């Protein structure tokens, strides 16, 4: 028997007609609460919908219809305002169901995951717990992959390092939960989990950090959205690590493992570690990406709302137009000065119009003060044609444009154009802050690049079994990093980098110390911690959470190297 989306044509016309009837009866009942027959007809129609979907075995749609019917059955005749939420949930559920079936009718593949938001909304309205993202995902969870041991450390030392790795994971997790430096946070989490997997490989639950490391790597590479549920999942991983450190016989929750495997399948990346995990558990990547899933959910719920993003792009275009006009006027002024005559151009009028449009656009999106800064420039622009203009006359407008550009360049969620001061001094200060921020960003990029190159060189040193030539440039690279951190006002981080440089120079290059993988892993832990600190903007922890520089200092002490910062 044909089932699923291919069988939809068998019941298509009747199914859509029944959905329309159910929606019509329900809408009338919302207005005429005293008419219980309308509610009863709606319930009967929803029951028929569920029966038809059960017949053709359309899993996600069948479950959505079932949840809708459950809520509808619980609504009494003459339902008061206390049932408004339930009625709206039913209406939304029917709307999503109809849109989903329309997509299947147009030839799109089955994707029951699209229906989970509507299903969970109905479950919450009925007092039931939400279903997890992985509800429709099938995988065997009884597999126990063998994880190779990469360390010869004793149990006590492995436990100590594993606790330090959990601290490192917590630092990255905190940034991830707060949506701060998401990529850097995920990278740090992956590093901590990889090390934890190697250190805890012989425990009952040693497979969990091994799987979680692959999932975090896939999460970053696949650019998955950091939803509330996914944040909670990675927080559960931290709790599992805590229990594993306290009890080597602890068995991680199967639900946590399944969620991790689902996200890995959704990420669909081709890295060695993610592929190894997928092979071990016998599944392949899903037939859709996270971006496609989110786009599909928005299509079902209604048109997406990316207005602010579109407006930002429009503002940038208007800003570029104004800057181009200023460049043209500047060229005309220089040519006119050489020929001892005033420029005659309609660019002044165009500049007046474009600056006015840009100011009004900013005001329209609620950025009144920034718009007023530009509006205050208009009287001067209107006089440009009628007076002997010099380049200095363009300075106030250039400052105002730099201010707008700096505010558009702020990280999402930080700062606001609404708080722009209107005084001239305030504009100049804002521009100066922008330029200072650009310089600081350059130093951060240089420091991050230096740390990345140094870690790559250490990896090559390990792969070559101790060829010190690979480390020749590392001290100079780390000195550059140290200088950047010092000028950025992070003396402790700079001192920790100096300690790493000293260890590499004295022990690995000059001392010819044996190339021990475990030792180099600890050195990499220190550099990874400093790298995360740099990528996070170089800010100290203020809320009692594990400080990433403390973890770097602990790693340096574990190397047997002394430092004032450690």
Short description:
With 566 residues, the chain is mostly helical.
Structure description:
This protein has 566 residues and is mainly α. The chain has 4 domains: 4-131, Four Helix Bundle (Hemerythrin (Met), subunit A); 155-289; 307-422; 437-558, HPT domain (Four Helix Bundle (Hemerythrin (Met), subunit A)). The protein is built from 22 helices and no strands. The protein has helices at residues 8-31, 36-55, 59-73, 84-105, 116-125, 155-177, 182-199, 207-221, 228-246, 254-267, 272-281, 290-301, 307-339, 347-364, 368-375, 378-382, 395-408, 424-463, 474-487, 491-510, 517-535, 548-558. The model is unreliable at 303-307 and 411-424 (pLDDT under 50). One of its GO terms (biological process) is phosphorelay signal transduction system. This is Scaffold protein FimL second domain-containing protein. Residues 157-292 form the Scaffold protein FimL second domain.
Q: What is the count of structural domains?
A: 4
Reported for the largest beta sheet, the result is: none
The dominant shape is flat
Report the C-alpha radius of gyration, rounded: 31 Å
> Termini, distance in Å?
70 Å
> How many strands in all?
0
* Beta strand %: under 5%
- What is the count of helical runs? 22
Which bin fits the share of residues in helices? 55-70%
The assigned structural class equals: mainly alpha
Low-confidence stretches: 303-307, 411-424
Mean pLDDT: 82
The topology string of helices and strands comes to HHHHHHHHHHHHHHHHHHHHHH
